[in-house]
Amino acid sequence: MPSTPSQRTSIMIQPLLQYPDPKIRLISANVRFFNDELNDWITDMCDTMKENDLHSLSAILIGIQYNVIVLKEGEKWTPYINARIVRHTDLVTKTERSIYYPGISADIDRYEHISVVYEDQKGESHVREFYSDDARIFQECLDYSFGSTFVDRCDREMKERINDYLEYGLVADGGSCPMVFYRDYFKRGAKYLLLGVLITFLAPFFVASDMREMIYKVDMVALGLVPLLTIVYGVYALYEARKYKQCTSCQTGNIIGSVLILAFQLLIVSIGVFFWVAPN
């Protein structure tokens, strides 16, 4: 069913979502209202498709987080709302490209025949069969609606090659950095050791000289562990920087800065131990 014109007459061309915008990982919600706002969204999608010479578009690619797909079919622009694939056959491998990742292509397995259930702009349900390239295009659009791209269908080796090629690496799930970096455990361990050594600076005021000697030996062991933890932190941090290239906290400069700060703190605390904690 061709798209129904909305009340709005002005052309509204929207910018296309492109790498590294993390909103591509948002999962589109089902449409629960069939009104002028929905018609305006579809009009925006059609205007954007005409401007960019596109034959298909998912709503999320212009920042609308709803499961709406528009296909150019001859001289008509047809909306498919809340679409789902209910049957598929004939898996075939072909080369695909992506609106979101411009300049990248990969061989992707897709079904040559799919059955789709969807709703039109009035909320009425329909079933549609797609074949060959039309089926492939529809599956690409549906991937976007569910928070993924064709890259997610690549094998591990191809994903790694694409990840290395992209400036910030592949966009992670959710488009954001992990809540916890494992490297921080090593840095935290080094800081706790330094803090523990700092506490022993009170020893000359409260303990006898023989006890100070034992504390001094313990400090030496702790200070020896700090550079080891710092090295492990640096190595693992570089690994995470490669894995999460899109995160600003993963940049090499930040990692080097953290290592230098730990080294400076180690130097200051070590000098204090030698001149203050060490027994006379």
Strand and helix layout:
Blueprint (H helix, E strand, L loop, with lengths): L35 H17 L3 E3 L9 E6 L2 E22 L7 E15 L5 E7 H14 L10 H10 L17 H17 L3 H4 L2 H35 L8 H26 L3
Antiparallel strand pairs: 1-2, 2-3, 3-4, 4-5
Helix pairs in contact: 4-6, 4-7, 6-7
Mean pLDDT: 86
Low-confidence stretches at least 5 residues in length (pLDDT < 50)?
1-7
Tally of individual domains: 2
Major β-sheet profile: 5 strands, antiparallel
| CATH C-level of the largest domain | Alpha Beta
Q: What is the CATH superfamily classification of the largest domain? A: Peptide deformylase
CATH-derived architecture of the largest domain: Alpha-Beta Complex
Class from secondary-structure proportions: alpha+beta
Rg, alpha carbons:
29 Å
Q: What percent of residues are in strands? A: 15-25%
Strand order of the largest sheet: 1-2-3-4-5
Distance between the termini: 92 Å
Q: Can you tell me the overall shape? A: elongated
Task: Give a short summary of the structure.
By secondary structure, this protein is of the alpha+beta class. The protein has 7 helices and 5 strands, in the order αβββββαααααα. It has 2 domains: 22-171, Peptide deformylase (Peptide Deformylase, Alpha-Beta Complex), CATH 3.90.45; 183-277.
